[in-house]
Amino acid sequence: MHKILVIGKGFWGGEWIKALETSPHAQLVDAVTRDYAAALKSIDADIVAVVTPPPTHMEVIRAAFEAGKHVICEKPLADTWEACLAIADLVRAYPDLSFMVAQTRRFVPQVQTVKQLIASGRLGKVNTIKFDHTVYDPDGGWRLELFSPVLDDMSTHHFDAFRYMTGQEPVSVYAEGWNPPWSQYPSNASHNILIRMTDDIYINYFATWSANGKQNSYDGLMQIMGEKGSLELVDPDTLLFYEGRSDTETSPAPQRIDMVDLPEREIGAIIHVFTEALDKKTLPPCTIDDNIKTMAMTCAAIESCKTDRRVSTKTMLKGLER
Known about the structure:
Layout: E1 2-7, H1 11-22, E2 26-32, H2 36-42, E3 47-50, H3 57-66, E4 70-74, H4 81-92, E5 99-102, H5 109-120, E6 126-134, H6 149-166, E7 170-178, E8 190-197, E9 201-208, E10 221-226, E11 229-235, E12 238-243, E13 255-257, H7 266-280, H8 288-307, E14 311-312, H9 313-317
Parallel strand pairs: 1-2, 1-3, 3-4, 4-5, 6-9
Antiparallel strand pairs: 6-10, 7-8, 7-14, 8-9, 10-11, 11-12, 12-13
């Protein structure tokens, strides 16, 4: 059985510890924080889970690779585009060691179900996605130092899910950010973002971590419109399909879609797919070459907020395709 050393003992590090306590695919050998350099030398583990704040990822990943360990890195990959590119270069310098970014929201029933429905053609050609993530997040901590707590942290999950569900890649991003007067954060806690994807898919994305009053969930509310109808994610357990009609102003009756049954979710699924890839000597999902495209969306949105202009992710990613 594979052995995992968890580096980072904050809240999410605790979630990794709990997942490993019940995982049939790997066992926890230890969890450490600042003393990880010594642990890497003394502890018998073949995998390192990097669960530290994004600005520290580069140095921890480097130390793990130098110790000959495979790496699962929590998202977001890094806190700047330059750091993302540097980590990508680092990962490619160790081709014999596996690396995966823990985009856990790929491994939830609603995302897997939507991906399958789009691939089946039930919606026809998808053109428009509307997404609403309205949450009050009290966590604070190192996120208080971010330009935007929701955009720097949670939105990366949503952007990755857009890519994963549609099979398309980002072309450009235009974003605005602001901080409501009641915000618990010192900087932008709310955003409106327009994303253009390949195959002429347009995404209208709203997110806030400073909701006042009604909230939805970390999974958000979503509507996906295609030629043959639309899907509506009402809550994490409710997905509705509305058959397309052009002869009436009223909505057709919705059909409830059964969610895909996943025996393992989120961190548990990440551990499974990564260890399985190691055993089969194949690439895991969410490789560096895959995740850099998700990070381009996040970093482009931050740049757009700061410059008040549309940012071309296509230009950012030019020359990086592998």
